[in-house]
From TrEMBL:
Gene giving rise to this polypeptide: phnA
InterPro entries for the chain: PhnaA_N_proteobac, YjdM_C
Pfam family, one: YjdM
Protein name as annotated: PhnA protein
Organism, as annotated: Sphingobacterium mizutaii NBRC 14946 = DSM 11724
Domain PhnA protein N-terminal proteobacterial: 5-51
Domain of life: Bacteria
Length: 191
């Protein structure tokens, strides 16, 4: 079983940060058939930051200076991607300079485009800076003028089961009086 093989390879440690907590398989994208050659064992903290569901914490990744020397290519690829995302940090830029990947591996590492992405991730937040998630309930903190509609979106209106507008962290969608409207996150707070 792949998980057992990965645990053997890594001595049951996260192959990126060496944590032994909440370990799971990470298939290094793009992959089709998960195997030891394209998967690594990582912890939930690393996974969330790699997959951008949590903000990146540069301190967490300083250990890459050691773990990037892994002989295993998928570990090298993810280390290279994360160092690239952190390239504004001097330590990360320095390590990136000395991390040598052969041509084929470098090509794989570049495939996701992560190396060109900013380190920080933007999330949907309410007017108080509290993070919003799909399905949340929010309350309007301002009476909204919904153009071309008779909807009354008054201050204090509760909007259940919101949707986050992809690619725009300043907007959510919610239903008021049965109609879906776009609402600016600065006009609401988490209910
Ligand atoms: Zn980890």
């Amino acid at each position: 079983m792949l998980l057992d093989d990965l645990k053997n390879r890594s001595e049951s440690q996260c192959e990126l940060c060496r944590s032994s907590e909440n370990l799971d398989i990470y298939e290094v994208p793009p992959t089709s058939n998960p195997s030891l050659d394209n998967s690594i064992l990582i912890c939930s903290v690393c996974k969330a930051q790699i997959e951008k569901t949590e903000q990146i914490d540069p301190e967490h990744w300083k250990v890459l200076a050691e773990t990037m020397w892994s002989e295993h290519l998928p570990v090298q690829v993810v280390a290279w991607r994360m160092l690239s995302r952190l390239r504004n940090e001097a330590w990360a830029a320095n390590n990136l300079d000395i991390l040598y990947l052969d041509d084929e591996t470098l090509e794989w590492a570049k495939k996701t485009g992560d190396h060109e992405a900013e380190a920080t991730v933007e999330f949907h937040q309410d007017s108080n800076g509290t993070r919003l998630f799909e399905g949340d309930t929010v309350v309007l903190i301002k009476t909204l003028d919904v153009k071309g509609s008779s909807i009354s979106a008054k201050l204090g209106t509760v909007v259940k089961n919101i949707r986050l507008v992809p690619d725009n962290t300043e907007q959510i969608e919610g239903k008021i009086e049965g109609q879906t409207i776009v609402i600016l996150t600065k006009y609401l707070r988490k209910g």
